[in-house]
User: What shape does this take?
Amino acid sequence: MIYRNKGSRSTRAGFGEGLLESGILSGEVVALGADITASTGVNLFATQYPGRFFSLGIAEQNGAGVAAGLALGGKIPVFTTYAVFSAMRTLDQIRVSVCYNNLHVVIGGAHAGISVGPDGATHQALEDIAVMRSLPGMSVFSPCDATQARILTRMAILDCSGPVYIRFGREAVPDFTGEELETVPGKAQILRPGNHLTLISTGHMVWEALGAAAILARSGINARVINIHTIKPIDRMAIIEAAQETGFLATIEEHQVEGGLGSAVAEIVVSEVPVRMEMIGIPGCFGESGQPAELLGKFGLTSTQLAVRIERAFRDRENQP
Amino acid sequence: MDLIKTSYYIRGLIIKMLASAGSGHTGGSLGLADVFTSLYFNTINHNPDNPGDPLRDRVILSAGHVAPVLYATLSAAGYFDVSELFTLRKFGSRLQGHPARDKRLPGIETSSGSLGQGLSIAVGMALAARLNNQNFRIYSIHGDGELQEGQIWEAAMSAAHYKLSAITAIVDCNGLQIDGPVDRVMNLSPLRDKWASFGWNVLECDGHNHNEIQACFKLASQNTEAPSVVLAHTKMGKGVYTIENDNRWHGKAPNPEEATEFLCQLNESLKIELSKNQEKS
Ligand SMILES: [Mg+2]
Assistant: This one.
């Protein structure tokens, strides 16, 4: 199936809609805000259900703890702010108050990735996946477009148990999956079949991976494309099969290479089916200000750059004795 | 009278369980024994036979390192058998070094041990209770050194903002922390003014006088406008007079010989307290 952009929208918009839908479906859903509710998408819920929205100000550590208390009180709290704050400033609160208590708290990480753009390094969450996926019991979701963000947000809130971190971005990106693509937490999606190599991606980078696969096809390379919208618990079988059937994997993410999606995939590959991997992401440095496209270009994360790098790595491997 | 005896019974359990464990926090646990006794034996609405009762009052031990006083009090109140206290800090025990909710020890409302987190949990519980139209009370217990954590003041702001009068925070004001006097490690004073300026109803008592402690809890429960904080002035190590106000006993457990000696001292202190009490009445 060929995926087409049905109109660009941000994953944060999808998150806001998913939160509102959850609020309509369950009266137990409550939302917490840390001053930036318009830019995180929480304002949709807050406007509709002011009695179930709690503004906590610029005090994220308290916000995470209050969410834990609400969960202990039988509510389903959704605590959202920029991912740099919701996932990292609050790490100890999430570890002890939320995870050690094994509470169903949904933590929204907005403005994740390098594509946040002009705000610069302090606001570009590039370590949140590594940090969140290392916590016992935490699920980590990273939807690839607005539609999937809406669906996964609803599922994170209403269908999951335990702590869930859901990551989304600021920029409008192609909305391509549509309602007909079934999204199930923990189940990877093969968006494009292929037997030469596999591109494994998450979040905004999935669209770029699809573009890279189309370019590789012109060079006669048949690339499988997998969307890992659930980084934890990860779909081990989809990764093992890709390694077995294609023998070469490239991971692509808007996140540090150390500890992110690539590491999560490598942890399975090295123990199950050791194959060559090309791990593409941010190479251990901070971001900077710039337009999203400029920053994606700097780190080689556009589809054209991805195709060139992956083809070279793939051919090198083929030429090895 | 009975409360004094109960608090000394709890102190004895604390010494015995810590000696058995070989590590743990003696000073603060002894110092809070009267507060815990007044709380569990005279104040809160609870039922040890039904620890999950949705309408029970909640007790959150934010200062998780004084877990021994919580465990000893819960067992004395009948939540579990006193013999289980001797598993404290041992492999496979429900009595972890710091309270752990996942071990399912009856009466443990939340895991704690990383200081400064309990008051935020109290705020969340109070907001949930308000939405659920429940009117139980929530007690969160803190060390004075713990108030150096910034999260405490974030939580204090939010509790006052939402007028969460269901919350009574209790501060164990013993003036000490591991490195020494609180005012030298990082000064908190004027502590009363700090809480008041954050919009809290501030109450103070001798943390070893049951009448004063209970009067504070009562005043707190009658306030419908603001959360309350009880600054309970205590002596670290209270009842074992050779270690009272000695911060070296913050994080140390007695060895078997010391434990025998401490239990003798507790007996003497109990007799003195009882006779003082008799004179008054
Ligand atoms: Mg102290």
About this structure: Residues B 143-145, 172, 174, 176-177 surround magnesium ion (CB under 6 Å). The two ends of chain B are 10 Å apart (CA to CA). Chain B has a mean pLDDT of 97. Strands of chain B lie at 58-61, 138-143, 167-173, 176-177, 180-181, 201-206, 228-233.
